[in-house]
Hints:
Chain B is of the alpha/beta class. In chain B, helix 16 (423-438) links the parallel strand 19 (411-415) and strand 20.
Amino acid sequence: IGNTADGDGKKPYIAIISKGFQQQFWQAVKEGAEQEAEKRGVEITFEGPATETEVEAQVDMLRNSLGRDPDAVGLAALDSRAVEPLLKDAKKDDVPVIAFDSGVDSDIPLTTAATDNKAAAAAAAKHMAKALDGKGKVGMVVHSQTSGSGIDRRDGFTDWMKKNAPGIELLPVQYGAGDQTASADITKSIIASNPDINGIYGSNEGSAMGVVQGVKESGKDDIVTVGFDSGQGQINAIEEGRMRGAITQDPGKIGAQVVSAALKAIKGKKLPEVINTGYYWYDRRNINEPQIQDVLYH
Amino acid sequence: MRGIVKGFPGVRALQDMRLSLAGGEVLALVGENGAGKSTLMKLLSGIHTPDEGEFFLDGRRVRPRDPRHAQELGISIIHQEFNLMPDLTVAQNIFIGREPRGRFLLRDRELNSRAGELIERLGLSVRPEQTVGTLTVAQQQMVEIAKALSYDARILIMDEPTAALNDAEVAALHDLIRRFVQPDTGVIYVSHRMNELEAVSDRITVIRDGRYVDTLNTAEATMSQVITRMVGRELTTDVGPEDVREDRETVLNVTGLCTKSLLRDVNLRLRQGEILGLAGLMGAGRTEVARALVGADPVTSAEVTLRGRPVRVSNPADAAGHGIGYLSEDRKQLGLLLDQDVSSNIGLGSLRTRFQSFGFVRDKAVRAAARESVESLRIRTPSENQLVKHLSGGNQQKVALAKWLVKDCEILIIDEPTRGIDVGAKEEIYRLLNDLAQEGKSIIMVSSELPELLRMSHRIVVMSEGRVTGELSAEEATQEKVMHYATLRPESERADAA
Amino acid sequence: MTAPAAAAPQQTDQDGIRTLVQGKVQQLLAFASLIAIVVFFSFASENFLTYSNITSVLFSTVVIGTLAVGATFVIVSGGIDLSVGTGMSLCAVMAGVFIVNMGLPIWLGVLCTLLFGGLVGLVNGLNVTFLRLPPFIATLAMMLVAEGLALVISGSSPIYFEGDSGYTDISTGSVIPGTDFPNAVLILAVAALIAGVVLNRTLLGRYTYSIGSNEDATGLSGIDVRKWKIIVYVICGVFIGLAGVLISARLGSAQPATGMGYELQAIAAVVIGGTSLSGGRGSVLGTVIGALIISVLNNGLQITSVPQEWQNVILGCVIVAAVYADQARKRTS
Amino acid sequence: MTAPAAAAPQQTDQDGIRTLVQGKVQQLLAFASLIAIVVFFSFASENFLTYSNITSVLFSTVVIGTLAVGATFVIVSGGIDLSVGTGMSLCAVMAGVFIVNMGLPIWLGVLCTLLFGGLVGLVNGLNVTFLRLPPFIATLAMMLVAEGLALVISGSSPIYFEGDSGYTDISTGSVIPGTDFPNAVLILAVAALIAGVVLNRTLLGRYTYSIGSNEDATGLSGIDVRKWKIIVYVICGVFIGLAGVLISARLGSAQPATGMGYELQAIAAVVIGGTSLSGGRGSVLGTVIGALIISVLNNGLQITSVPQEWQNVILGCVIVAAVYADQARKRTS
Ligand SMILES: Nc1ncnc2c1ncn2[C@@H]1O[C@H](COP(=O)(O)OP(=O)(O)OP(=O)(O)O)[C@@H](O)[C@H]1O
Ligand SMILES: Nc1ncnc2c1ncn2[C@@H]1O[C@H](COP(=O)(O)OP(=O)(O)OP(=O)(O)O)[C@@H](O)[C@H]1O
Ligand SMILES: [Mg+2]
Ligand SMILES: [Mg+2]
């Protein structure tokens, strides 16, 4: 049944399950996928659970989308083990699976379009260290202590600092669930308990914006902030000098890659094992360069 | 009004009912429990709408749409079941809907002083800023009365206002009623206390099974005529206590019972097969004694022995374990599961002891027992599956009582057991209580109806202000003696009461 | 709120037969909302009424359904339990600790998890009865504590049930030969059946309704309200434990952070199923129907490819319509 | 639950003075839990009792506090409102639509947002009264609908209040010259004061308590219960709108996906503040204290660098202790 793609003139249909839906990042992935789909004449659906802790909800979504007889599936799994049985079902039905955002711990997906979050976080750490001349106190506001992206962006940051910047003291990690208000309040608590703090890192858009907000409200404008992701608020903050810079991935490209890889898979073409979608550091200096403008989303 | 018909699912509450109230008179409305009195009053006050029939006020046809409309028509009602907001104060309750206020804000000082005046005029023993939830049933009843009187109503409907009151308070209420009645106002007065009809009413309308039976002039009628019309047969009122020999075993002995709020050094002794009456005025502490005995309220000190063995009763479950049962005076809040059916209510207390096997409830047995009670107490209900909240007030009381009669208690403490129950059914209940005593069960009976206490008790203990002020045997007890002790002010440290 | 007849237990008897039939009809009518939704989606999408989608829907009901059945006891008794969601994660983590870390045999690990769930319920029950905390506060506190403990115990990362493929069979395996009908659904069915019988036919169930109807009156009838309330919370806790087992077996791992938000869905299922939050009324069957309504709606909206931002809007409206229709029918019948 | 004295409004009168003083002492004692926590953290960390940290605690109370004050009305009237969280996001988005997209002047945009919040409350009120839905269901549905609509209207991306730096001043600016004391805190203080007066001293407040205390009896006293209940939900809605303005002004943007979960925190603040979920009892002052307890705890635990996974565990335990102590004191006094 899996092959409605060719014969009967019906458009191929790709079901994409992401890790989230409401966040800017996932909206940008969705947009990239939709644009690519339009260009290539395929039909897609894009959905994801409300937060990155809702593993079971994602399993249900994957199950339901398999029920719609897709020609291919794009999946950013919250937990590889949890989707394993369903991936087997997909394989049985000859539905190709394209993984994205983070790898799926299984040999069923034909390829993975992802950013190396650890490396990206390390890059953020490098820029932070540079801004502080390799010494000072640095706080971290991370969006999740359990999700893959949260863990990678935390560990990538701390690992790099420990290895390369002995002069920098890392404060205990605080988690703000990616909520901007909560992250702002946490930032202010960190500043209050460490009045001599020099820099704060926010691990996704909500956390980064919260950090910027908290710093602003506490009036300590000399604290260096670096963040993750983009979004109008962050872009503004960088342009206004309230944020040193941030790492952005290229979500639009991820979305597009998922669709084109899926199409190739439907047509039976060979795919590389990993499609690296890259990450970019952007700050006040390079923000207006075309290749950066291309990857910023808002 | 005439031709009134009102039905509920499975029940025809009223059929071709009629009634007339002249200016300046007090019309008593009597009938058995479930006869339809309250339903009729609810129609008048706009809570229910009649299926058929019409009302006339001063010759004009009216139809009360809702309580507010009825108020506008000059109809004020005291419901049989309290309609009070327990979290609000007395003053707030009385003037609900008519709060004195300025442009934006309420004038609570004025509210309280107006309520204070009213309370003083009515001679109530409450303060305007007391929270109603902390009042006793009798006090709540007085608040209801105050609320109804505070409307400048032309027609005042009182549905069993005295069921929870003492003789003294009843007399005071009758006074109020007489003062209320003007040439252009009237009162409809529902009561099961036959002896007060003579004192307060001008005419008596009798209804039976939702139908109009007859109207008599109080001055010309005898009570037995009324009762015969009510129940449709002659009543024999011959039940009285059998003698209990002095040498019977003492089942329950209480010494030095004190509670934080009221009780001081209460001593009681209950013998096997005895009905012990507990008399006193409103707030004397009878209910507190009862609640303290079953552990419903904390006591500060007490020595309780059960058949000579000292026991500690720290909650009603303990009490039940010792075979002590307690019927509360407040059936709605503390006695019944209103949302559940008759049989669930009757079976509740004895599920564990009588109606289970291996943890499973034997529903057939429960229902059989419930049917038996429905029959013996003449509970008026379409079936034992009717929800209790759909029963008439008196029948609800019977259900509450039936729960304890079904449960085989050695000691039964019953607080106002016949509150709102009609004369006929009262006789049945007296008979049942007597039978229990004959079987050797012991009963403590709290009642505000002195005649009832005098008739039923082997011994009467009288309380005043939280102390026992006197004890009378059946032979020596008279209304006067009881009242003497009840009004005795124990040389109390008034200070610590304050 | 105004519907008397979803009331307490139904009886069978000559006299009671009319009431019984009425009761059944009304439950049937509550069921009707569910049927209407199912029929609608069957027309809307050919993929809806297929064997595999039906199993999908049932499977996705399992966790919420289990929690909701447990919460039914508490809610009928007039309480509430906000700790079912994070409590479930904590139990899942404990299952991981028992089976993976301590290496207990699966059956023993599961048993220990259920007992641990009971312990969570016991703490709730003690807080509600002896400390006399409002159930909302007591279980809110437990919700926070369980959320934290799940992270502490698991070290904030999932515990995988790798070697024990037998464990995942608890949810995803199938005892019905020749099918892939998930065991989890059968387990929920059996658990709900037992819960239904307990709530309807036993002393415990009767007291649960009584306490919910009028706690004071029940106490004055000589019933040890505290004891029974504690038992009710413990039962709910055991269901929390069961849900923890079922979800971790389904996912193949104990996810320490996944439970938050389930409590609201579970309570919603209970209330949609006709149980009154003020206690004294409700049924396990209603709860199961309520949970099914939620998961059928979720599934149907996803399968008919309604844009995700509209799904919640529609979900909200349909819930209003379904509950309203259910109540209106009850009022008129 | 058993404490009569958190009861309805207190009066001043010769006779009532004792009651009044008692009442105040008890409110003071509820306050005592808060003080105890503050004192503890002052010793635990020298950075706690600084001007800047105190302002940041107060600032972090604003949103939850505003929602909780609104929810107090609904809860005192015997209802519940689960839609305050996502409703707030929806209102924030609407503020963006009014001010950014439609270019209304700020004051008008804010006014429209408050009215829109009132509209959300109105729908809740109508569902509760005319459709006779249980408040839990009606507002749960609104929670879902608002969550969806916020995404739909905003196109799932934040709306930034770019040019209008005046808008963010609503929250982060300071009208007190020479300080940076945030306006948002003052706005909450004024709103809470007005709410307190309304609940204590006006007809509306009186009827709110009355309905929560005994809805039927209130109706039988000739009061139009439906009308007042609708007004109560509308008031709560206006506070939802205010919270939407305050949060979007603080963040400089309307975040469509941020509100879920706030409802539980708001209700928790109300209940910790001594308002009974069964209605009829409670106070705005209590709610504000409840909200402060939550945010002081959050801040204090963060500032003393308690590992985050333990923070919730401790938070849960402290809530139990605080509410228990509060109740025990009320019982004995
Ligand atoms: N809401 C209702 N639903 C069903 N039946 C009802 C309802 N209200 C009253 N009834 C029935 O109507 C009949 C008349 O009840 P009503 O309360 O008028 O009696 P009553 O004369 O006031 O009795 P009592 O002396 O016990 O107060 C009773 O049989 C009662 O069961
Ligand atoms: N929960 C309570 N809180 C405060 N005071 C109470 C409470 N219950 C009773 N009281 C007070 O205790 C006193 C004794 O009440 P109790 O009910 O024992 O009297 P009683 O003799 O049964 O009188 P009756 O029932 O006729 O009012 C009353 O003055 C009452 O105000
Ligand atoms: Mg009556
Ligand atoms: Mg009494």
